[in-house]
Structures are given as C-alpha cells and as structure tokens.
Amino acid sequence: MSSGGVARVYRGAFAHSTRDSALRVLTDFVLGVNEQGKIIFFEDGQNVESLSHQWGFETSDIEWLEPHEFFMPGMVDTHIHAPQYAYSGTHLDLPLLDWLNIYTFPVESRYEDLDFATDVYTKVVKRTLCNGTTTACYFATIHTDASLLLGQIADDFGQRALIGKVCMDCNSMVPNYKEQTEECKDETDRFIHELLKKKYALVKPVVTPRFAISCSSSLLSNLGKIAKNNDLHIQSHISENKEEVQFVKELFPDCTSYTDVYVKHGLLTNKTVMAHGCYLTDEELMIFHEKGAAVSHCPNSNISLISGLLNARNVLNHKVKLGLGTDVAGGYSPSMLDAIRRAVDTSKALCIQDAELQPLSYKEAFRLATLGGSEVLSLDDCTGNFEVGKDFDALRVNICVPGSPIDLFPGDDPEVILEKFLNLGDDRNIVEVYVAGKQVVPFS
Ligand SMILES: [Zn+2]
C-alpha cells in the first residue's frame, strides 16, 4: 500500500487519553499511518469508504484487529537508570543514601568498560521495548563514551529516548565515582555535541545533574547554562527521602527549599523533569507550575527504598505536569504496567490515611503512563496519543495469546479488556510495538 503516502491502515478498538479525557475507548475506529510514521487519519470505522477515496487505499488492504485486541499508545518511562538494570530485582534493603553508596555507585563506576555497558544497555533497551516503553528518559553514568553507546543502542532498536550523561563532582563515600568540576562540564559539552552530531531521529541528550547532593554549586550553574544555551531537556532528582531533603538544606543554606536550589542554578525550566518529589511542599509545587517543570512519579522505587508516598492527586491539583517512571533499579520492575499499578496502590494507601482524598483511577494512571509522560518530557507534540499528525507510537495488545495471564468472559467489552490488561497483563500480551510507525517488537 503506497499510493497517497498511506503506509498502513488499521481497524478495530483503540484506547487513548486526550486533553479532556483520561481514557477514551473507541470500539470501531480506523487509523492510517503514512510512510513517515505519522498518523494521517483516525476516524470512526463507518467513514472508511470516504477515507479510502480521500487517501487512495483499498479497503481490502486494511489490517483488522481481532475482537480481543486493541491498540494503545506506547508508554513513556519518564525516569529510568539504564546502568542499574544490571542489578534490578535485588538490593532493595537499604534507604536511599546508603543504597547509593553501597550498591549503586560501585556498579555505575564499572561503565568505563564498554563491553559491560553494551551488554547491560542492550538488555535494558530490549526489555523495556518488550514491555511497551516506546519512550524512555534514561540516566546513564558519568562516562561519556558509554552514555553515547546507550544512545546508539536505543537508536539501533528504534526506541525514542532522552539520554543523560550523569554529572556529579561530589562523592565522599565512593570517591572514584565522580569527575572534577571542569572535566564534568567539558565532558557534558562533548556528550551533547557528539550525540547531536549523530542526528538520530528519536534520540536526544538531556542535561543530567544526578541530584543536589552530588553536585557543587558551580557545576549546577554550569549545567543550567549548558541547558539554556542549547535549549535542552534537564532531568534530576528531588525530595525523594527525608534524610536527603535535610542534607540538601545543610548543603545549600542560602536556598529556601530543595526546589529553590534548582531554580537558583537555572535548572527548573519547562523542559525539566524531576524524579520523585515525595516531600515537595505546596509552595514548591506552585513554583513547579509557574516554571512549567514536571514531576516523574516512581511509586515502585518510593516503596522499595522506603522513601515516601507521593500524593499524586495533590501534584495534579497544582496543575504540575506528572508522569510515571520505573526508576530501575530503585524500582525493581522495568515495566510501566507495574508503575501504573503501584501509582494506583500508592494513591489508595494515602486514602487509607486520609478519607477525604480522591484515589487515582486506573484511567488516570493510564493517562500518566502515556499522554502525561509525553507532556512531562515536552514530547506531546509528537507522541502520547493517537492525535492526527503525531508519530504512531503504539502497542498492539492481544488478550488471548497462548499462555495469557488474563481470562475473558462473555460481555467483557473493550473497556473491561483494557482494565484487565493494565492490572493483569504483561509483555506476553504486547504482541507488536511501534515507534514512529516502525515495528520495533518483535525484534527484526
Ligand atoms: Zn532515579
């Protein structure tokens, strides 16, 4: 099918979020993708004849979904540490700062070894793609060449990705895992320059101070300038754990809050995503809203490291952009389905403590994992839902695959099927994954 630029046409059930609605389930819709991987039409199935005339395709070329299948947008992991995938599922017995010193920094320091990096980075990109993560915002390590390699691997497998070479010039506990301030600045420049020079269609650099504790004031200022001069994304961590918040207060006595540390160094912009935010005050959330900065909610990690419970409802009430993150490996699961479930669980746990609070619905969590995540990464002009003009980033979900963890019963309509998938499904049900119109799972 090549006439009129139509590459593929699908007909069946679709589920996505829109600006006005957390979940829209469309039981008989028809969607067209062009040669550039963009959605060129998305309309009710009854319009198929006129669409075929308008776009010049044969209705016999339409690919029909089975009744137990649907398309949903690819999921957006707004916070994941690729190097930590090497030990995901283990090392969950210490609080954040000890966990970093004892488990994380020693492992991350090994990524100077590009063979080790190739192995882990290939596995994490493949694993997240299989689990439906079409866009990932990655932390790498302080090593520029290994970070560039992560970008190359994401490009090779067709994942949309923001890649951050980690910046840290303070580390008293594991002193071999840090850079000198000047070196860190120069290497960040080199990383950005070299990654942009590759001209990857879907892979971009993100300025990545690890967090306020690991960075001198001078480094933070320099990173703020680098982000501004190159109009780049910024990612870091904020207010994850009480001990960390206290430590930041001592390190930056001139700042009025943790948020103020990033504001003062030019790091809180409308292209910033901060992970966690469990202990952000209402005043800080108002600053996030004013700046257009976003929060990545990483509920598995917050519970696994006994960090805290983010009140997602309060973040949403402050009109702060909110998405979900796996935070591998503080979060033990690389699956965004897990992040959806833990976000709802966390919200319900908070409701046990406060009966006035409105829990997150599965529909809202679905939105956070798709359109919400794309807003967090300022990529909502090209991904996040099935709006015409966006890239076709999509998961084809089949509930009835062999060995499916889901059973269907008479009367299970598409909305029920979606809810069952979000709560009970896994990568076996994600039979095809598309990024910018290109099929990336199964792997070619
Ligand atoms: Zn993290």
From TrEMBL:
Gene3D superfamilies according to UniProt: Metal-dependent hydrolases (3.20.20.140), Urease, subunit C, domain 1 (2.30.40.10)
Cofactor requirement: Zn(2+)
GO biological process, one term: guanine catabolic process
Enzyme class: hydrolase
Pfam families attached to this UniProt entry: Amidohydro_1
Keywords, comma-separated and alphabetical: Hydrolase, Metal-binding, Phosphoprotein, Zinc
Catalytic activity reported: guanine + H2O + H(+) = xanthine + NH4(+)
Family the UniProt entry places it in: Belongs to the metallo-dependent hydrolases superfamily. ATZ/TRZ family.
Free-text function comment from the UniProt entry: Catalyzes the hydrolytic deamination of guanine, producing xanthine and ammonia.
PANTHER family: GUANINE DEAMINASE
Entry protein name: Guanine deaminase
Species of origin: Ictalurus punctatus (Channel catfish)
